[in-house]
């Protein structure tokens, strides 16, 4: 039994579907639904993700939720508790929506402060709110896994002040939750994909999943990208690992976990963006950094 908060698209969708492929019932929450789109205006919906979860072999349940609103999150968790007899095994905090708020061009002192603080509320505060209401279900069972989805698992600066702060803070959320949850048998980790080939990234390069390699003509690094399914399979492997508590508090990455669990991407490949960085990018940009 899983809740994927922010499961509308991208990594959240990939995680929800792969948990479904493992046989899980997955509550998919977010703001974009058939009843109306979020401010991002994208076409993906929680219903679309839930349908993919069910098609993969699980049971997808879409619940429209604004995770910045505590009352809506409380209602979501109350519904899960009522419908699943109090059971929740996996909580995935994947709420993001910060792309249009990220300023990649200016230093902090030249950025719009309201926009930057809004990014932090959207990308960090939503995770805190969701955990606040969902964690009691995991604690009551004395087992389970919390997954904080981030970008990067090292202290390397991510190129934009508020973006870096948000993604680093999410890792710290995993560390803090791990410390408080370990006595109750619940693990908490952060996880990052490599170069994620999300719906938005495919659109950015003007390609589809069928011809995605054409995008490498614009950015050679895109040839080493990975689908959301790769991230999803990493999370599914962690959720199925009876020894996952040994990893609690760590910032993990798909490029390490595939070696340990043996999963592949959707096309059977095993992308390793850290290896690509070391071979092609480290000389220009420096080392990727040591895992946190």
From TrEMBL:
Pfam families noted in UniProt: adh_short
NCBIfam families: PRK08303.1
Descriptive protein name: Short-chain dehydrogenase
Top-level taxonomic group: Bacteria
InterPro entries reported for this sequence: NAD(P)-bd_dom_sf, SDR_fam
């Amino acid at each position: 039994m899983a809740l994927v908060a922010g499961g509308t698209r991208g990594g959240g969708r990939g995680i929800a579907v792969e948990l479904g492929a493992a046989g899980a019932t997955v509550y998919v929450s977010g703001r974009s639904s058939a009843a109306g789109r979020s401010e991002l205006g994208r076409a993906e919906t929680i219903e679309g993700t839930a349908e993919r979860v069910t098609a993969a072999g699980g049971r997808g349940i879409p619940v429209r939720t604004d995770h910045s609103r505590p009352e809506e999150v409380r209602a979501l968790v109350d519904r899960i508790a009522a419908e699943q007899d109090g059971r929740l095994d996996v909580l995935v905090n994947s709420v993001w929506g910060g792309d249009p708020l990220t300023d990649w061009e200016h230093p902090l002192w030249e950025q719009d402060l309201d926009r930057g603080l809004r990014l932090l509320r959207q990308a960090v505060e939503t995770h805190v709110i969701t955990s606040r209401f969902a964690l009691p279900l995991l604690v009551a069972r004395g087992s389970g896994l919390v997954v904080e989805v981030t970008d990067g698992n090292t202290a390397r600066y991510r190129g934009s002040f508020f973006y870096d702060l948000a993604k680093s803070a999410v890792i710290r959320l995993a560390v803090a939750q791990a410390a408080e949850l370990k006595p109750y048998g619940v693990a908490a980790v952060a996880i990052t994909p490599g170069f994620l080939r999300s719906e938005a990234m495919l659109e950015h390069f003007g390609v589809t999943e069928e011809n995605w390699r054409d995008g490498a003509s614009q950015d050679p690094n895109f040839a080493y990208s990975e689908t959301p399914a790769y991230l999803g399979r990493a999370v599914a492997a962690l959720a199925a690992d009876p020894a996952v508590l040994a990893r609690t508090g760590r910032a993990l990455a798909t490029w390490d976990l595939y070696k340990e669990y043996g999963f592949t991407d959707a096309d059977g490949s095993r992308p390793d963006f850290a290896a690509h960085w070391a071979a092609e990018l480290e000389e220009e940009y420096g080392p990727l950094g040591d895992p946190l």
